[in-house]
Amino acid sequence: MMRAGTRIFVSLLAFLLSHSVGAAFGTVSDSKIAQRELFSWTRATFPNPEQDPEACHSSYSRICDPDGLLGTKDKVNLNDKINSFEVMNSLSCSQKGSKDEVEAPIQLAVALVRKMDLSNYLGSDGKDAAGRDMAMGIHDDWGVGSTSCGGTGILMFLSIEDRVIFISTGTAVQKVLTDDRLDNVIAQMGAALRRKDYGDALLRGIDEMEVYIKQGPPTDWPFVLFLGGIISFALFGAFHKERERERYAEVKSKLSKLDKDRALALQGQYESTSCAICLEDFAPPSSDGELSPLTGSLHGGKGDDANAPNSKNGRLPTIGSDGRPLKLLRCGHAFDTSCWEGWISSGHGDPSKCPICKQDVAGSPPPSPSAPSLDSASPNNRHAQGRGGRTNYYVAGQPNYDMFELERAFRLGQLSSRYPRYVRHTDVQRWAQRGYDGTMTNDPTFIRSDPDHSSSSGSSGSRSGGGGFGGGSSAGGRGGSW
After folding, report:
1. 282: helix, coil or strand?
2. Which contiguous run of DSSP H or E holds residue 105?
3. Fewer CB within 10 Å, N or C, the chain?
4. Which residues lie below 8 Å from residue 174, measured CB to CB, with a gap of 6+?
5. Between the CA of residue 449 and those of 19, 167, 224, what are the distances in Å?
6. CA distance between the termini of the chain
7. Which of the residue ranges 300-304, 312-316, 344-348 has the most confident prediction, judged by mean pLDDT?
């Protein structure tokens, strides 16, 4: 009798303990879900399902749903559909230097978020631009698709609260999934999206894309239109190629300047001569002795800060690339006035904080020789400022290299936002590290993004779904809203 009573007591105790632990873990899980609901995603913060399936809230390597928007059944059905799609579909193409055609596997991935971080996007089309950049950026970061035939990846991206969809495609896929076809795919998904059945919407979209892929490239044009289209496509391709070369050269020039600026900062000779937001050069300084907001002294004079070197030419800019007087913040950082106004109006952050160093700039008085704008700065601040309004790259007469590194990291982030095809967020993270001592323009990842760079084609691989991503990249795509 005693033994039976002991067994009952032990069983009851184990039951109570298991339910207590389960409740505790349930509370933690609920807390994590609540935190995710308040989170706005960027390309840089979005996880990779192959590397962090837990963060993706999915055990499937092709699906990332960090906010838990899809149910378990939806994910099972979606994963089965993706596997079937990848097994049953491929693209044929001729490899460079060979007449033989190869079969290149298509890879399909899905990414969805509750909402995006729109702080870097201005205007009425900000959501659409953010959706495009997120989709294409995630496509590139994950490497969706084989590199055979020029890129065989597809990434479907949804931002639920923003009501934005974008389907990113590789170069080879674009020959089949044209803009018109993708517009129809998105239209077919609209009804399910509006009733908030996101799993069904994605399944419908995949079915529509599969129909088009099995049909092959559009061939039902009249001959004249077909010929005209071929000519237009060739001309557009040449124009697009030249434009990409120009953009790559522009990025290369800005990265090269950042490399040179870093060397100057190490020598204590760095001067900011461009806007850190738009990255455009300020207007050249005049030679009439006008007061410079970056030095707080007359052009050509020695200035008030005996510890800081003079400008190389004795003058610093006062006018931004927009033709307006520079916006000088209390911390000494200067921006184009138009960029500053756009930054604030877009909700990027507190207008009393500098975008670069996050110092308080509220109530910044206009700089003048008699009333330096930085006298109220704390001398104990890590980014303490020199007298006379000079950007605080000097502390106690020594170069403040940490301050330059903040600006450099900010500028790299802006480059990535403007040129995501050439400067990826993973590159920014690596290049912004204090220990990085390479030349960014010679970095292998940047060289591979050169439009004229001939990379070796990847192998076609086996036609089985569920394998690792093949290193593909996005060549564009199509988006919309519902």
Report:
1. coil
2. strand 101-105
3. N
4. 475, 476
5. 54, 21, 36
6. 69
7. 344-348
Separation between Cα atoms, residue 458 and residue 145, nearest integer Å: 10
Q: Is the Cβ–Cβ distance between 161 and 115 less than 8 Å? A: yes
- DSSP code string of 224-280: HHHHHHHHHHHHHHHHHHHHHHHHHHHHHHHHHHHHHHHHHHHTT-----B-TTT-P
480: nearest Cα among 229, 233, 216, 194:
194
d(CA 449, CA 420): 10
Only one residue has tokens 């300020």, namely: 282
Query: 């292998």: which residue's tokens?
Result: 444
Model pLDDT for residues 340-377, shown as the tens digit of each residue: 888 888 776 677 788 888 888 765 444 433 333 333 33
Six token digits for residue 476: 């564009």
Strands 334-335 and 327-328: what pairing?
Answer: antiparallel
Exposure pattern of 59-82 as b/e (b: 16+ CB <10 Å)? ebbbbbbbbbbbeeebbebbbebb
Return the structure tokens found at 303: 């200035």
Tokens of 151: 């890129």
Residues in the chain: 482
Angle (CA) 284-290-294 rounded to 5° is 65
Q: pLDDT digit string (tens) for 94-110?
A: 766 556 677 888 999 99
Half-sphere exposure of 115 (CA within 13 A, CB side): 11
Q: How far is CA 92 from CA 33, 180, 214, 332, 460, in A?
A: 44, 21, 11, 58, 10
Given a contact cutoff of 8 angstroms between Cβ atoms, the answer to whether 43 and 425 are in contact is: yes
In terms of Cα–Cα distance, which of 164, 188, 152, 186 is closest to 111? 164
DSSP 156: E
Q: How many CB atoms lie within 10 A of CB 377?
A: 20
Q: What H or E segment, with its residue span, contains residue 91?
A: strand 90-94
From residue 185, give the alpha-carbon distance in Å to each of 165, 211, 212, 447, 477. 11, 10, 10, 35, 12
- Between 180-184, 405-409, 416-420, the lowest mean confidence (pLDDT) is in 416-420
User: Amino acid identity of 403?
Assistant: M
Would you state the structure tokens that stand for residue 133, as one six-digit string? 């950049």
What average pLDDT does range 224-250 have in this prediction? Answer: 73
Cα 145 from Cα 167, distance rounded (Å) = 14
Q: How far apart are CA 263 and CA 270, in angstroms?
A: 8
